[in-house]
C-alpha cells in the first residue's frame, strides 16, 4: 500500500465558500481516477473505505498492486465490471479553506443526459482530455452542453501526460484547439492544466516532470477560484412551493429564494397575477429573520391578503420576470423515444407546471461541426432550438439571467418520465395578440337547432380492424334517425388537409393534431363527428379527448388481432409492409398503443359491422347525445 498522501501547499488562505463542479469528458479519460486522487490526497477516505478499496482493487482494479482510486467513485457493479461511469456520482471533500461537491458524470454518449443533470447545478466544469487522443467529439459535446447550461468557467484537464512523455508541445496543441472551440460556443474562461491523475502530478502537488508549466495545480485552482455570483446578485425570485396555513391567523408562502435577496418591508409583486404587496415577515425554522438570500429556504408573509398559490413567483416589484405562453428554448432530449413536435408534454419551471407543445423545431445542432441542421425530431442526447406553446402563461426569466427560473424539464404525460431539459432563451410574443372572438350563436344553439347534442366518436385500431366500415354503418343509422353527422376518415383526409404528411412518428402526431382540431370545429358547428383513424399513440388520443372535453368525446377501440387484420388486408398494405415496401407501418415496424380505458371495445373478430354500429348508437343514446 502506498505511503501517506503528500501535504498540499495551501497555507494562509481565507475560505472561499462552497464550490460545486462536475467532471466530464470522453470515456476512459480518467475522470473517476482523478476524483479518487483528489479524495485520497486530501485525506477524505475513512479507514474502513480504504481497506475495502484495497480489497476491491485486487478483484476489479486496473493498477496492479496499487489501489485503483477510480473504484472510490465507480460504485455501481455494472460500472466496475465495464470500467465506465454510468450514473452521476456525487462526492464531497474539503480543502483547508473550501467545501467542494463533485459530480462525476458519464463519458459514454448514451449517458449524455446524466452529464446534463450534473451540469445543472455546477459552478465550474472540469473537462478531461486524454493527452494521447486530444479533442474528440464527446469533448465537444460535453463542452457545448456546459455552455448551454450556463457554466462559463472551465478547467481543461489534459490527463495522462505521463503517457506522452510530459510533452509541452502536445499540451499546447490540445489547449489551442480547445480554446478555439470554446470561444465559438461562448466559453471565455478556460484554465488549462496538464496532469496525471494516476501519478498525482499537478493534482495536489506541482509536477517535477513538467517544470515548464507555471500554472496552479488543480486543487490550488479549485481552492482559490472566484465562484460566480450571478444568481445571488440577480433580481429577487421566490417560486412558491406551498401555502402554509397552520391556523386561521397565519398565511405564509414557503419556498426557496432562487435569486437576489429580500428584506422585511421590501415591495414585491406576485406573478402571474401582478398583485403588489410588501413583505411582512420572513419566517425560518429557527425564528424570524430580517433578510433572506439566494439558496435560503424560508416562509414569507405579506402585508396584504392577496391570492397566492403554488407555482406563483414572488419577485422584486421593480424587476419583473417574463410572463408568456410562448417561448424559445434550447432543449436537450433525454429519452429513448424521440421528441415529437405537436405532442403534448408537461413542462415544469420551478414549482409551476403546464402543458407544453413543441410547436416548431427550428434546428438541430450537429455537435461535431456546430452546424444548425433542419430536422423534424430530436433523438436521445440531441440538442436543438425549439418553439414551445403552453396552455397557460408561465413565469420565467431567460436562462442566462437566472438558471433556476430559466430552466425547465419536460415530462411524458403518460409515463411521468422526464424526457427533456430546456434552457429558455426568450419569450415569443406572437400569441399575445390573439384572443377568442365571441359569437352570439354558440355550440349549444347550433346543436339544438339540429335536435341533438354534438360530440366526437373516435374510432381507433389497426389497419384492417374495421374502423371505417363501422363508422360508415353508424353514420347511416344516425342519418336515418335525422341526425346531422360527418365522418373524418384517415385515408380521405390525407387526400387534402394532410396530404403533406408522411407516416413517420412525427408526421403521425401532426396528422392527429390537425384532425382533432377539425373535429373540434365540426362539433362546435353542432355535428356528431365520427373520426376513423389508426391514431396509434395514446398521448395524441388523450390530447383529442382533452381538446373536446370528457363529456363530448367517446373513444371506441375497434379491436382485432394483428393476424386477423393481416388475413383481411383489404388494401394489400400488410403484404407491402412485410416485403419492406411500406416503412413505418403500424403493427409491423411502427408501434400501436391500445387504449387503456376506452368508452367502448368492439372485438370485430366476433362482432359483425351491423351489430358493432348498434353498440355505438346505443352508447350515444345512453350518454344522452341523441336527445
By CATH, the topology of the largest domain is Rossmann fold
Averaged pLDDT, please?
A: 85
What is the CA-CA span between the terminal residues? 87 Å
Please indicate the percent range of residues in DSSP E strands (runs of 2 or more). 25-35%
**Which strand order spans the largest sheet, edge to edge or round the barrel?**
2-3-1-4-5-6
Assign the CATH architecture of the largest domain: 3-Layer(aba) Sandwich
Would you give an account of this structure?
The protein is of the alpha/beta class. It contains 17 helices and 27 strands. Strand 2 (89-95) and strand 3 form a beta hairpin.
Tell me briefly what this model is:
By secondary structure, the protein is α/β, with parallel strands linked by helices.
Amino acid at each position: 500500500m502506498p505511503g501517506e498522501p503528500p501535504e498540499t501547499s495551501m497555507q494562509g488562505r481565507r475560505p472561499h465558500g462552497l464550490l460545486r463542479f462536475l467532471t466530464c469528458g470522453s470515456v476512459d479519460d480518467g475522470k473517476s481516477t482523478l476524483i479518487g486522487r483528489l479524495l485520497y490526497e486530501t485525506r477524505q477516505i475513512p479507514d474502513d473505505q480504504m481497506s475495502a478499496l484495497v480489497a476491491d482493487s485486487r478483484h476489479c482494479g486496473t493498477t496492479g498492486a496499487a489501489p485503483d482510486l477510480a473504484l472510490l467513485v465507480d460504485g455501481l457493479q455494472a460500472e466496475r465490471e465495464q470500467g465506465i461511469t454510468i450514473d452521476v456520482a456525487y462526492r464531497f471533500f474539503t480543502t483547508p479553506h473550501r467545501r467542494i461537491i463533485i459530480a462525476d458524470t458519464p463519458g459514454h454518449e448514451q449517458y449524455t443526459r446524466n452529464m446534463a443533470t450534473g451540469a445543472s447545478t455546477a459552478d465550474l466544469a472540469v473537462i478531461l482530455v486524454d493527452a494521447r487522443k486530444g479533442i474528440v467529439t464527446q469533448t465537444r459535446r460535453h463542452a457545448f452542453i456546459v455552455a448551454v447550461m450556463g457554466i462559463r468557467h472551465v478547467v481543461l484537464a489534459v490527463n495522462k501526460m505521463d503517457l506522452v512523455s510530459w510533452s509541452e508541445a502536445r499540451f499546447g496543441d490540445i489547449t489551442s484547439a480547445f480554446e478555439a472551440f470554446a470561444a465559438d460556443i461562448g466559453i471565455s474562461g478556460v484554465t488549462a492544466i496538464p496532469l496525471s491523475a494516476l501519478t498525482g502530478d499537478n493534482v495536489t502537488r506541482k509536477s517535477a516532470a513538467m517544470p515548464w508549466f507555471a500554472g496552479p495545480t488543480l486543487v490550488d485552482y479549485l481552492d482559490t477560484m472566484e465562484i460566480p455570483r450571478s444568481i445571488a446578485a440577480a433580481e429577487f425570485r421566490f417560486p412558491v412551493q406551498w401555502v402554509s396555513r397552520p391556523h386561521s391567523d397565519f398565511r405564509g408562502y414557503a419556498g426557496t429564494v432562487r435569486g437576489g435577496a429580500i428584506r422585511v418591508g421590501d415591495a414585491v409583486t406576485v406573478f402571474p397575477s401582478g398583485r403588489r404587496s410588501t413583505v411582512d415577515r420572513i419566517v425560518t425554522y429557527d425564528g424570524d429573520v430580517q433578510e433572506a438570500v439566494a439558496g435560503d429556504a424560508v416562509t414569507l408573509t405579506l402585508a396584504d391578503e392577496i391570492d397566492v398559490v403554488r407555482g406563483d413567483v414572488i419577485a422584486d416589484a421593480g424587476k419583473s420576470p417574463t410572463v408568456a405562453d410562448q417561448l424559445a428554448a434550447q432543449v436537450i432530449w433525454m429519452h429513448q423515444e424521440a421528441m415529437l413536435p405537436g405532442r403534448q408534454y408537461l413542462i415544469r419551471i420551478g414549482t409551476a407546471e403546464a402543458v407544453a407543445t413543441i410547436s416548431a423545431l427550428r434546428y438541430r445542432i450537429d455537435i461535431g461541426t456546430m452546424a444548425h441542421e433542419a430536422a423534424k425530431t430530436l433523438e436521445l442526447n440531441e440538442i436543438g432550438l425549439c418553439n414551445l406553446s403552453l396552455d397557460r402563461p408561465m413565469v420565467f426569466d431567460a436562462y442566462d439571467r437566472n438558471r433556476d427560473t430559466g430552466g425547465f424539464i419536460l415530462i411524458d404525460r403518460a409515463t411521468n418520465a422526464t424526457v427533456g431539459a430546456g434552457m429558455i432563451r426568450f419569450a415569443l410574443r406572437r400569441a399575445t395578440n390573439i384572443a377568442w372572438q365571441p359569437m352570439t350563436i354558440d355550440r349549444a344553439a347550433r346543436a339544438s337547432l339540429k335536435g341533438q347534442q354534438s360530440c366526437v366518436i373516435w374510432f381507433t385500431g389497426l389497419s384492417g380492424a374495421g374502423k371505417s366500415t363501422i363508422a360508415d354503418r353508424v353514420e347511416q343509422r344516425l342519418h336515418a334517425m335525422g341526425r346531422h353527422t360527418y365522418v373524418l376518415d384517415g385515408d380521405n383526409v390525407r387526400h387534402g388537409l394532410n396530404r403533406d404528411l408522411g407516416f413517420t412518428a412525427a408526421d403521425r402526431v401532426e396528422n392527429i393534431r390537425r384532425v382533432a382540431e377539425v373535429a373540434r370545429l365540426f362539433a362546435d358547428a353542432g355535428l356528431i363527428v365520427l373520426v376513423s383513424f389508426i391514431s396509434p399513440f395514446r398521448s395524441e388520443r388523450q390530447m383529442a379527448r382533452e381538446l373536446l372535453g370528457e363529456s363530448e368525446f367517446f373513444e371506441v377501440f375497434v379491436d382485432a388481432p394483428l393476424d386477423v387484420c393481416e388475413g383481411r388486408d383489404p388494401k394489400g398494405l400488410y403484404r407491402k409492409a412485410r416485403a419492406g415496401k411500406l416503412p413505418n407501418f403500424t403493427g409491423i415496424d411502427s408501434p400501436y398503443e391500445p387504449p387503456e380505458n376506452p368508452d367502448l371495445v368492439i372485438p370485430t373478430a366476433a362482432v359483425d359491422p351491423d351489430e358493432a354500429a348498434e353498440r355505438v348508437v346505443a352508447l350515444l343514446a345512453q350518454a344522452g347525445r341523441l336527445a
